[in-house]
From TrEMBL:
Domain of life: Bacteria
Span of domain VTC: 68-245
Pfam families attached to this UniProt entry: VTC
The protein's name: VTC domain protein
Amino acid sequence: MIPALQAVADAAMAARPITLCELQARAELMARIDHSYLVPVEVFADFAARLTDPHRTGGPFQALCINGRRWFGYHSVYYDTLDLRSFHDHRQGRRNRYKIRERLYEHSGERQFEIKLKGRRGETDKRRRPLLSDEATLGRGPRDFLAAVLHGTYGIAAPGELVPSLVTDYQRATFVADGRRITCDAGLVCQDAGTGRSVRADEDVVLVETKTAVTGHLTEADRLLHTYGLRAVQFTKYCGAMAALRPGLKANKWGRAVRTVFPQPAT
């Protein structure tokens, strides 16, 4: 295992388990506030140990466990217009911005068509629709779902033409407490669906996201990460990877985070 995945695996195995049904009951958080951090492996080990400590006040964070597994493979395909409207809307901070993707949960084979929307206060609102095993990602059902979500949320029409733009693969462990969730990703590999070029994330960095439904407040995990001198960064897998894969795209506010996550050039 690469160091980042080893650190994530060790933390997940050391924590108390929680089932998927329990996670959904305690912290499904389809609408939430997200903060992203780039955490060195040596910091991550201590951070995770403190949150999952059985003697922690209020009880420990627990690790999602499905059929004995504590970390899981995620395969996603993102879709955008030919002129990368979704990417540029995020780069420019436009109010009505969204991402479209298909996500495959590799441990179960479950496929989901997902739309990630941004609210006026920066909150993430994820809508999703299950895909049948033989259903086309951009078939009539998913397209009708996309059109209904965008019209109902933003009052706008869905883009007419969408093409695959980015493919991502990584391993994730999820830690849960009441109303709070922390996702920890390692081994991220991203491929440009148009050119075939790929980039790999730094093997010594864990991508951590804190998630809560409470707006305007830092979570305990955020405050703990601050004690290590870490601050939230403006980084998403889609926008960060596209900026790394296509140097002609302007990284803007993501530049430093992109260079940290992807220190080696695309190949």
